[in-house]
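Okay, can you check this protein?
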Amino acid sequence: MLTEWERAALTGLLYGPVAVDGGAFVNGNHRTLAMLDVGVRRTVVTIFRER
């Protein structure tokens, strides 16, 4: 079970989309770099497509 601090940290890190447009980040560069710096090599990815 996560502490309140851990829950807030994860929310700050993962809440809000990191968009990739044509192979380039639209936002989220700093969050991605921070995750890589601490050894994160995998995360959840969701793809939204307009119909």
